[in-house]
């Protein structure tokens, strides 16, 4: 049976359009870190590199080349952790996409070990050249206690959803651990109209 994260892990990836609290366990990712406006060519190439590596794992698993037996699954969605540069925060500058600091990532199945992940990096890099291949890392990340909510609409209107989440945290006496937040992209920007795009917004709380 094919593993579908949309069906088996709804709690993590398909929240409602209202805030909820969730405990996010440790997960394994291919990651790439960067800074600047995500609308440029550099960011697009970084995303392509992550997907190439992730599909390399998927195909090897499907053929039974890794893991204990053949395993078919849907590649996890692109995610990103976003914040602002220390310089921008210290200077109190108005929001500028050039000041964004990010770590984009795609989750990998639990059976993927560091050895498997690094071997796949080498194999895919030989077939699909990308200047970002050498910067991809394999990391385990645990978000812990979080508040998350589904945002429907363009990225430029995420502020409205964050306001709803902030009010929820105030009512529940929760506070953000850091200024950074996570976004999980459920829609393909090439195929979905901006007003219909779905993005999970999440941040760690205490």
Automatic annotation (TrEMBL):
Residues annotated as domain GyrI-like small molecule binding: 19-199
Protein name per the record: GyrI-like small molecule binding domain-containing protein
Annotated organism of origin: Enterococcus silesiacus
């Amino acid at each position: 049976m094919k593993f579908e994260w949309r069906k088996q892990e709804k709690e993590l990836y398909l929240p409602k359009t209202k805030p909820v609290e969730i405990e996010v366990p440790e997960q394994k990712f291919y990651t790439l870190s960067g800074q600047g406006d995500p609308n440029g060519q550099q960011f697009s190439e970084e995303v392509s590199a992550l997907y190439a590596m992730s599909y390399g794992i998927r195909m090897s698993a499907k053929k039974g080349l890794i893991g204990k037996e053949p395993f078919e699954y849907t590649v996890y969605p692109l995610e990103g952790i976003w914040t602002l540069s220390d310089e921008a925060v210290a200077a109190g500058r108005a929001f500028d996409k050039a000041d964004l600091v990010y770590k984009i990532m795609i989750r990998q199945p639990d059976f993927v070990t560091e050895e498997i992940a690094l071997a796949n990096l080498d194999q895919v890099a030989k077939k699909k050249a990308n200047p970002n291949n050498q910067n991809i890392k394999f990391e385990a990340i645990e978000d812990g206690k979080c508040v998350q909510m589904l945002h429907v609409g363009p990225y430029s209107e995420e502020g409205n959803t964050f306001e709803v989440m902030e009010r929820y945290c105030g009512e529940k006496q929760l506070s953000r651990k850091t200024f950074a937040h996570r976004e999980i992209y459920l829609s393909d920007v090439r195929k979905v109209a901006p007003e219909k795009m779905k993005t999970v917004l999440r941040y760690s709380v205490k």
